[in-house]
From TrEMBL:
Molecular-function annotations in GO: protein-disulfide reductase activity
Protein name, entry field: Thioredoxin 1
Example of a GO biological process term: cell redox homeostasis
Site (Deprotonates C-terminal active site Cys): D18
Disulfide linkage: C24-C27
Family according to the record: Belongs to the thioredoxin family.
Active site residues of this protein: C24, C27
Amino acid sequence: MSQKFQEIIDSERPVLIDFFATWCQPCKVQSSVLNTVKENIGEGARIIKVDVDQYPALAAQYGVRGVPTLAIFKKGEMLWKESGVHDVNTLTHLLQQYL
């Protein structure tokens, strides 16, 4: 996964990573928000979900201590990271800044 993950975040296109867990109720809320963000952004950016229980080393590597944690990468660089549930407008605006 880490090789594939590195290829994804090295992209010229911004990538929003949703670090989540299947048992996390706020993560389910965040997931539906991300569906709307994807509609707003279209092909301008990618949104990828990473299950922290399946990929704990990846979560640890990026300092994920709670879920949901969202991070935006572009060209391999982490541009933004925050934990908690975020609304559609905030995330859409954030991604548009990096397009």
